[in-house]
Amino acid sequence: MGLNARLLVLLLPLALGACTLMPPEHRPTEPAPEPEPAEAPEPDAPEPEVDEPEVDEPPEEAAEPEPEREPAIPDAVIELVADAREASQNGDYDQAAAYLERAVRISPDLAPLWQNLAVVRFQQGDYAQAEQMARRSIRLADGDRALQRRNWQLIEASRAEQGDEEGAHEARRQAEGI
């Protein structure tokens, strides 16, 4: 993969960063499955015997499990990512990094923020920082294999730019193994 192709792969996440950081209420959700209708008794069938409860206490309502929610992403973070994307598109990587660093201070556990910051550091030519940010993103991207793969690809490119061909090869194997 040539340098330009790698850069294109690396810049894509930043362009999509705002989509990745959409708050949960804006993400499409699968509709809840409709409950199956209860079978109606046949007209000539005898009434089923029903055991009367021995205790007059009202039956306990089964607690429905709370749906698992993703943590809310603060509006300020979403705005900072949008500002960073615009700055990056205008070639102002220092400003893009500043916006993303502010976003990371607000939400330090959001793996896509660290990945976007890694991409900007790569664009600035700070390959060691790019790898460090990508590694942090990998640690936080629990279960997000696509994000982990993109981070390993960034590490591969960073190592290649630093002349570490063996390290780049190892990072490529990590990306392909995900």
TrEMBL record:
Signal peptide start-end: 1-18
InterPro entries hit by this protein: TPR-like_helical_dom_sf (IPR011990), TPR_rpt (IPR019734)
Feature: compositional bias, Acidic residues: 36-65
Region (Disordered): 23-74, 158-178
Keywords from the named record: Signal
Pfam families associated with the record: TPR_19
Name of the protein described by the UniProt record: Tetratricopeptide repeat protein
Taxonomic lineage: Bacteria, Pseudomonadati, Pseudomonadota, Gammaproteobacteria, Chromatiales
